Amino acid sequence: LTALRLQRCEDCGAVAWPVAERCRACLSPKLREARVDDHGRVLSFTTGHVSFDPAFRDRLPITIGLVRLDIGPVMIVFLPDRLARIGEPCRIRPLAEDPSVFEAVPPVSLS
Amino acid sequence: MPGYEHVAVTCPVSVPYQRRSPHSPAWFFGEALVRLLAAAGLERAEIDGFAASSLMHAPDTAVALTRDLDLAPRWLEWLPTGGASGVMALQRAARAVAAGDAEIIACIAADSARPEDFSRLLGNFSHASKTAVMPYGGLGPNGVFAMITRAYMERFGAERSDFGRLCVSQRSNAMAYAQALFRTPLSLEEYLGARLVAEPLGLFDCVPACAGAEAFLVMPVARARALGLPYARLLATGERHNAFAQDDIAWRGGWALDAERVYAEAGRGPDDIDLLQTYDDYPVISFLQMEDLGFCAKGEAARFVATHDLGVATPGLVHNSSGGQLSGGQAGAAGGFLGLVEALRQLSGQALGNPMARCETALVSGYGMVVYDRCLSTALAMLGAGR
Fold first, then answer.
1. How many Å is the Cα radius of gyration of chain A?
2. Nearest to A45 among B150, B196, B248 (CB)
3. What is the least distance, in Å, from the CA of A99 to any CA of chain B?
4. Full-prediction pTM beyond 0.90?
5. Greatest CA separation for chain B
């Protein structure tokens, strides 16, 4: 599984998402990208049938989820339909084609 | 006491909404100002305070509008707070008039609906939305509020038909309000059968975007009386930003922190309220307001809506008397003024449709700015009829 890398505060250890220039927890400016634990659970999800971005219009419907990582942040991610259930455990990984965008995968992944 | 006793809120103005318009927000600000001056019988030079709210006027602010409208105010406020901006403008203007910092303040929210406006707004709404929301299918606020709605349904056992009842009730109010975009009857079956936008949200859960403006004047009561203007009074108000940041997902809002104090300052509570104007960008958000403002317990809004006819036609509490944004349309930041401007009309006997048999006390609440996974700003105001 590709490693999840997010900003971690060198002073207090809090993990930041969305990308920030200062830690929300302790206001330190020392945020550095680091490998972080990628486990979380699904807080909610939706299947969208209308997109405001023309790039997605031929890919609809698209399912996204709101995931709370065990290490703190809440992330919006692409969600496979088999994980579309509130409370479902998952892991988060970057997309191969764009590592600044993330998707949820089952907690035990053989790939 | 809040200290607004000698402040009048007057001249509610709604510039009719249009689904498409070639005009800029500045055009709509100007149209609102023309109508305010006509309603008050004032000259432009007598406006010495100006509060403005817009989402699509960027990169300009209220400063550029003073030149566009040739105003020379001694008090100026810019409210980049969308759905919370109406109550926030009122609070600031009332304080300024009470303190003597300005005498006559025009509060105006306006937005446009040129072909490029809406996609540009969503693409640049916030840094977080650009990098952490829109790359996920470009669903915009519909996606975020669909997830908030689903979590609410799971947590409290609500169903789509519960939200549908609210939309149907508001549509029945809108049918008598000539400026509403949607005025045809809506049945629960039509609501449930409408095409899905972002599950569980369907077409009638989403506000129709449009162009338009909403506005009002704030001035001393003595001046309003001298001008012969019907008016309402601000009794108490509150605002809150980034409340309950630790909550996984929005199932309550900042109103829950402020309602009790506002009721105490107003000397009136939920039982005294004739008209409740919630910010209805999505029905679940109106549910949160009904709960957090004390009209029912947390999680009980579905039952509250099912057991109370909130329409203008029946006695008792009225909710969103002109149909709200869900039927009326959302003209950007003017959506944050719509509920307040309609409340001012009802409180001062100037309803354009649906005059209430009795409207002595109104509660207006606002909700604005979906920076990331929820809106951050909430506001509420208790208003009373003038006299």
1. 15
2. B150
3. 12
4. yes
5. 56
